[in-house]
Design a protein that fits this description.
- This protein has a domain at about 30-140.
- The chain is built from four helices and no strands.
- The protein has helices at about 30-35, 75-95, 105-120, 120-140.
- Helix 1 packs antiparallel against helix 4 (about 120-140) and helix 2 (about 75-95) crosses helix 4 (about 120-140).
Length: about 180
């Protein structure tokens, strides 16, 4: 066991290093996925993911995270988030023998499958970007330039000292009452 010069054990005890500090602590999975579903940067939760409906920004404007290190990084996560719901519909049709006796019912079933898939496309792509970010954090590549982790317990909000948050000012003084 490693001891300090004063004879005490290190913070990790039994020769282990101390618990990781805020710079090395990986982000929470739920919080990161929630940020992706809200179409926000999975790292800081403040920057927008998309320029338009599903056109991805290259980087976060707040923390500088490069969303896709290599083009096509999210293909696996996109397949999971996109193709599995379609496969569920096909399973309902083929495996369970769901059949529609009339064409309006078939059209209604198609619309019931297609409309939610199209409407939730940005959220699903945001979750795919968040899953890709988590894989980059938990399985790091030394050449990947990830921003530093945020301190624990800090909630996303305007960055301190940024142009969006003016410095605190004292309330204006009232003139003395002449009475």
């Amino acid at each position: 066991m490693t001891t300090r010069p004063d004879g005490s054990a290190p913070a990790g005890g039994r020769g282990f290093p101390a618990s990781p500090g805020p710079e090395t602590r990986p982000p929470g999975i739920r919080r990161t996925l929630r940020r992706g579903a809200r179409r926000r940067c999975p790292h800081c939760g403040r920057g927008a993911l998309f320029v338009r409906w599903i056109t991805l920004h290259e980087r976060c404007r707040v923390c500088g995270l490069q969303y896709l290190r290599n083009q096509g990084d999210t293909w696996l996560y996109w397949i999971v988030m996109d193709r599995i719901p379609i496969a569920v519909g096909l399973v309902l049709i083929v495996f369970f023998g769901l059949h529609t006796p009339t064409w309006p019912q078939a059209l209604l079933f198609f619309a019931a499958m297609a409309v939610p898939l199209v409407a939730t496309m940005p959220q699903r792509q945001g979750i795919a970007v968040a899953l890709n970010y988590l894989s980059r954090v938990y399985f790091p590549d030394p050449s990947d330039d990830l921003p530093r982790a945020e301190p624990p317990g800090e909630e996303p909000g305007p960055a301190r000292g940024s142009a969006s948050s003016p410095p605190p000012t004292a309330p204006p003084e009232r003139p003395a009452d002449p009475r």
